[in-house]
Amino acid sequence: MLKKYTVNIIFRVLCAALLAFPLSVQAAPADDARAALEQRINKVIELIKAPAFTAPGERDRQIEKINAEILTIFDFEEFSARTIGRRWQAFTPQQKQDFMGAFDNLLVATYLEKMDSYSGQSVKYTGSRTSQDGSKVEMQTAVISEGREIPVSYQMILKSKGWVVYDVRIEGMSLVENYRSQFSEIFKSGGSVEDLIARVRKLAADTQAKNRKGA
Question: Residue 27 belongs to a domain with what CATH number?
């Protein structure tokens, strides 16, 4: 199982990259994918910079607004299916709904938690790759931190609701694969789908409670 600090590092770099993500003119569909990401991230930044984010009496309401925006960045059904892997097909419809609800809460809460550690690292756009049919785009960036360039790429897919992120790779490490490794340990130790859902719910609840305190 990958250690907890590995996930923390991934989200810290992810948040830095998203908050400072610069866009430049590119040919479609890469241009459309980047424009969609920029629009969503700009709104998140606006909410984070607002005084309400640090005001004790308004923080909870502001967090809800930020959560709503973050939920538009990722496609959680795609994220969940790719994270669970082949076992996803064995989940019942109700188990899928329960897991997605718990998992998106965990991702959003962890993302928000790591925003407080964002210290102004700069990010530069380094390129993109588009699938042959134009339905997928990999947006490539580099986070500049303490004189070191950290490659970060966003895997995006075109769905009926537009361009969404379904995975992030930081220094070649996939967020999907990282969580898949952790979750698979539960099954390897004899745990059930319900055990997994309960574990994810607890992790999400603990992180949400920490966020509400402004830690």
Answer: 3.10.450.710
